[in-house]
Write a structure and sequence with these properties.
two-stranded parallel ribbon; DNA Methylase, Chain A, domain 2; Rossmann fold; alpha/beta
């Protein structure tokens, strides 16, 4: 798609006036290419405003808004209908910028601040990275917009990320305290997109916050890796990559990327579900080396959900029936993230992969959104009167991850920084 003017968001602002009265309302921060918003709209929310600092993400949102793409299951509602789309630095935004009318109560603020500071694929600078403190602006806008609830998304690395004192887990404590100071009780968990019908194994941290009496629960999984017992009576098996690819149109050769002869020769002997390994740096508890797979050399297993879609053009390889290899295409990566087939992305090919890889899978927004929408509707009917929701305790597995990190660093602390630099050099 080509570039379009910056006035698109204003041109469609006349639409959706009745929808925001009938449906729970949403303000989207760090909206990116719109994955989380698509899911929340499928769950019943109406987007009042969406904002991002990335110009190409904003162009993506504005273009798809003008196309009036129907929300799945509805013939009268369209994605981002009437939403005010704002290209701005979140630090400069104030309550009046979002188009909330006087006396209107907002139901939800949602978004995922940039995750690179806490991602295992990044430099893991955490709060030392300026992007690592963007949660403070998220909390600031929650405190002034006063939604009934908020939804915060980030990488699972935030669970064990360090704070100012260097203690693992402290960063998440600071994030929760920022929202609690604004008057919200919080609940945290880790969710896997494959557990909610996506053909992708993507684990992310979610925080739900509420200032009303009821603190929403996270949804039960609809899918699981192993089914058949009474525990999984109403749960389907994970959707595999092979099943997903069978549902997609066969890509044109112009859309595909093949390995060079030299790389193809290296990959020929690699079994599915594996890849070329980077050199491992020896550690005290890992004498064989702390290794990983080299970026862009993994051959996907069609019998399982795909690995996490990344923000790079070097996606996983697919082995075809004739034994040849090709990478997952742009359209396939967008589909794995849950974007509608009509959704288009602005910018260069590299930018499009980046927008897709950085998106929140639609499955997350739809699953969590249904729980939030139920509470929002109940509140709209006056059923949420009472004291403020209190924060839930951290999940047991969060505490286990923090303790493991502390023990691991105590044993491998002098080796770990060198190991991380080596792994980064090989794109892990």
């Amino acid at each position: 798609m080509g570039r379009r003017g910056s006035s698109v968001g204003e041109e469609v602002a006349e639409y959706g006036g009745s929808s925001r009265k009938k449906h729970p309302t949403l303000v989207s921060l760090f909206a990116g290419a719109g994955g989380l918003d698509i899911g929340l709209e499928k769950a019943g929310f109406h987007t009042v405003a969406a904002t991002d600092f990335d110009e190409e993400c904003i162009e993506t949102l504005r273009f798809n808004q003008t196309r009036r793409i129907p929300i799945e299951g509805s013939t009268s509602r369209f994605h981002l209908e009437g939403a005010k789309i704002i290209h701005a630095d979140v630090a400069t935004l104030h309550a009046q910028d979002f188009g909330i009318t006087e006396g209107e109560e907002l139901d939800l603020v949602a978004g995922g601040p940039p995750c690179q500071p806490f991602s295992s694929a990044g430099s893991q600078l955490g709060l030392e990275d300026p992007r690592g403190t963007l949660f403070q602006h998220f909390a600031r806008l929650v405190s002034v917009l006063r939604p009934r609830m908020f939804l915060f998304e980030n990488v699972r690395g935030l669970v064990t990320a360090r704070g100012p004192s260097g203690r693992p887990g402290e960063a998440l404590e600071l994030v929760r305290k920022a929202f609690e100071k604004a008057g919200y009780g919080t609940r945290c968990t880790l969710l896997n997109a494959a557990d909610y019908g996506a053909a992708q194994r993507r684990v992310r941290l979610f925080i739900i916050g509420s200032r009303v009496a009821e603190l929403p629960e996270f949804p039960d999984p609809t899918n699981a890796e192993n089914v058949g017992s009474e525990l999984f009576e109403d749960v389907k098996k994970w959707r595999t990559l092979g099943e997903f690819l069978a549902s997609m149109p066969k890509p044109d050769e112009s859309e595909t990327c093949r390995p060079s002869p030299a790389l193809g020769k290296q990959l020929k002997k690699i079994p599915t579900g594996s890849g070329l390994k980077s050199p491992g740096v020896k550690e005290t508890t890992r004498p064989g080396g702390h290794w990983g797979y080299k970026q862009g050399t993994f051959i996907a297993d069609p019998g399982r959900p795909a690995r996490t879609v990344t923000a790079a053009t070097t996606q996983d390889w697919i082995r075809l029936e004739d034994g040849s290899l090709r990478r997952l295409t742009l359209a396939e990566c967008a589909g794995l993230q849950g974007f509608p087939r009509e959704w288009q992305f602005a910018g260069t090919r590299g930018s499009q992969f980046r927008q897709i890889g950085n998106a929140v899978p639609v499955a997350f927004g739809e699953a969590v959104g249904r729980s939030l929408a139920q509470v929002a509707r109940r509140c709209r009917r006056g059923g949420c009167v009472g004291k403020r929701a209190e924060s839930a305790t951290l999940p047991t597995n969060f505490l286990e991850y923090v303790h493991y990190t502390m023990r691991d660093e105590a044993r491998n602390g002098t080796d770990r920084p060198r190991s991380q630099r080596r792994m980064q050099a090989y794109g892990e």
